[in-house]
Amino acid sequence: MNSKNIKIKSTTSKLVYTSILIAISFIGSLIKIQGSIALDSMAGFFAALFLGPVYGGLVAGLGHLLTAATSGFLLTIPIHIVITLEMAVSAYIFGIVYRKFNSIIASIVGILLNGIVAVLILMPITTWLGLPLNGKTFFAAMVGPLSLASVVNIVLACVVYKIIEKRVL
């Protein structure tokens, strides 16, 4: 049995695991790296591996909302709604790529999506909203910490999944 064969069939079990992972995401949301960048998405990326991409997207999106709420929505509610969607899509795509390829390729894709691409998408929105930190300045300030947080969250998710995978076997 390889890592792509762990399957949880019961809907009730998936809902329970999802709830637990959302709670873990809340704990991660309290471990801040910078502003509203935290260790909230580890549970979402783990969920994408363990439960599937849809559950991973759900946990990652809600995890970001928890981080934004505990940070006071520093970048405004509209920006955090966009980030919530970006997080959900990043975790979803991470889960899809993992199932088709492997953890290394999925991790690279997840880090690029969640680190660089997310900030590139937000640049024009920050300018349009007239935020003090916008455009290229926003990119310069956010890409490093967000990429670092992405690496930490995704690597932790993969490590925890590999540990659990060995116990399931």
Report on this structure.
The protein is an all-alpha fold and 169 residues long. The chain has a single domain (7-163), classed as Orthogonal Bundle (Arp2/3 complex 21 kDa subunit ARPC3), CATH 1.10.1760.20. The protein contains six helices and two strands; from the N terminus they run αββααααα. The protein has helices at residues 11-29, 42-50, 53-71, 77-100, 103-129, 135-168; strands at 32-34, 37-38. Strand 1 and strand 2 (37-38) form a beta hairpin. Helix 2 (42-50) runs antiparallel to helix 3 (53-71) and helix 5 runs antiparallel to helix 6. The model has no long low-confidence stretch (mean pLDDT 91). It comes from Anaerosalibacter massiliensis. It holds the Pfam family ECF_trnsprt. Keywords: Membrane, Transmembrane, Transmembrane helix.
**What's the level 1 CATH class?**
Mainly Alpha
Largest sheet: 2 strands, antiparallel
Figure out the total of helices. 6
Low-pLDDT regions = none
Kindly report the oligomeric state of this protein. single chain
* Strand residues, percent: under 5%
In the CATH hierarchy, the architecture is Orthogonal Bundle
Question: Can you tell me the number of structural domains?
Answer: 1
Helix and strand succession?
Answer: HEEHHHHH
Spatial order of the strands in the main sheet? 1-2
Shape: globular
Name the structural class: mainly alpha
Give the terminus-to-terminus CA distance: 7 Å
Chain-averaged pLDDT: 91
What is the CATH topology descriptor? Arp2/3 complex 21 kDa subunit ARPC3
Task: Please compute the radius of gyration using only Cα atoms.
Answer: 16 Å
Q: Tell me how many strands there are.
A: 2
Transmembrane segments: 15-33, 45-66, 72-97, 104-126, 138-164
Organism: Anaerosalibacter massiliensis
Pfam families: ECF_trnsprt
GO molecular function: transmembrane transporter activity
